[in-house]
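Our consortium's second objective concerns turning raw sequence data into structural hypotheses that experimental partners can test. To show how far this objective has progressed, the report includes one record in full. It was chosen at random from the queue rather than selected for favorable results. The single chain below, 171 residues long, was entered without modification.
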Amino acid sequence: MQSSLLNSTLDDKNLSEIPHFRSLLKQLITMEVIQWTALWNTFKDEFENEKNMLGGSLGDKAADDLKERVIEHNILVVSKYYARITVKRLAELLCLTVEEAEKHLSDMVVSKALVAKIDRPMGIVSFQSVKDSNDILNSWAINLEKLLDLVEKSCHQIHKETMVHKAALKV
């Protein structure tokens, strides 16, 4: 829903009058990591001007919301490109400390925005795709079928060996 809203806003002809925000929307739509420091340096003056017009507290909240959205965008992008990544590297990509990166990632996992597991002792994040119950049951059924095939082959081999030994004893 957010993606369709961003795309429709980007297509709006009135947005051409505000080139800074058009470039911001383009960055949010592309599936690339956005460097927060570079983005903030570009848009800091705009937010300072907005703060003066709207009032201090609302301007600060808007800046904090933008940072949150950029961090969420970056975590989603990283989850698309990486299956496993160290928390340290994730923090570097997000321009955050390790603790902040882990907190934001945990918040997104709790809100079910993505599926990930954090191995804290190893410092590794494993991103996973969301599986529905039918896929899980099908994978279990396939594994069970393979196991039963192995048991059947083993039983056949054991039976064959006993038959060979019985025949050798009779001779």
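The partners drew two points from this record. Residues 68 and 106 are 13 Å apart (CA to CA). The first strand starts at residue 84 and ends at 86. Both points have been shared with the crystallography group to help prioritize constructs.
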